[in-house]
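Customer escalation, tier 2.

The customer says the design service returned an amino acid string that "doesn't look like it belongs to this structure." They asked us to rerun it and document both sides in this ticket. The original structure tokens are below, unchanged.
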């Protein structure tokens, strides 16, 4: 299975807030299922804790297991903290940048905009959501801009990118740092999960 197409609020109830997956807010705080609130109070094993952190990352950024494993392996080969490099690579994907600029309400929607050819990078149409954006690239939305959708980072555009609302363009100023990523996740547990692969 490539993409998750099932109920999104159920995932948010189980794993916590995932702004890239859906903008909906669940009306219950405990996980879905027949056991109700007591299901979330069960003692969690170390494996389950690591698995849930990994699943948060997968669902939020909309990547498959194979893609995430590939990102982890690339992050291991690079110099620096592996967890931060992994998050940096995921944040610099084109679909994530389009979402952070406010052109789409979620990363899933941004992925669809990119796939349908509604986004250009430096004047060239790019239809690959996993395209890695680099410093200085200019991203333009060729459809009507939806800048009001910026709900991440407290409703503000992150400082590593800048946006021109009048022309529906954005520019990658520099690489993202760990402090600028608003997702509450422990990336070290994800690296530990993949330590044997």
């Amino acid at each position: 299975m490539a993409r998750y197409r099932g109920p999104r609020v159920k995932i948010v109830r189980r794993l916590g807030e995932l702004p890239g997956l859906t903008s909906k807010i669940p009306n219950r705080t405990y996980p879905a299922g027949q056991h109700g609130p007591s299901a979330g109070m069960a003692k969690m094993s170390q494996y389950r804790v690591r698995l849930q952190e990994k699943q948060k990352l997968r669902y939020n950024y909309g990547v498959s297991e194979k893609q995430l494993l590939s990102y982890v392996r690339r992050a291991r080969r690079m110099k620096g903290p592996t967890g931060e490099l992994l998050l940096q690579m995921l944040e610099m994907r084109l679909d994530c940048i389009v979402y952070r600029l406010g052109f789409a309400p979620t990363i899933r929607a941004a992925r669809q905009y990119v796939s349908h050819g509604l986004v250009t990078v430096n004047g060239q149409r790019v239809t690959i959501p996993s395209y890695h954006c680099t410093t200085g690239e200019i991203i333009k939305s060729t459809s009507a801009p939806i800048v009001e959708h910026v709900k991440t980072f407290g409703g503000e555009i992150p400082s590593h990118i800048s946006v021109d609302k009048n022309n529906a363009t954005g520019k990658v100023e520099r690489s993202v740092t760990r402090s600028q990523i608003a997702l509450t996740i422990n990336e070290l547990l994800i690296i530990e999960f993949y330590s044997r692969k």
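Tier 2 assessment: The sequence is consistent with the input. The domain at 8-88+184-193 is CATH 1.10.1050.10 (Ribosomal Protein S4 Delta 41; Chain A, domain 1). The chain has a mean pLDDT of 82. Sent an explanation to the customer and offered a walkthrough call.
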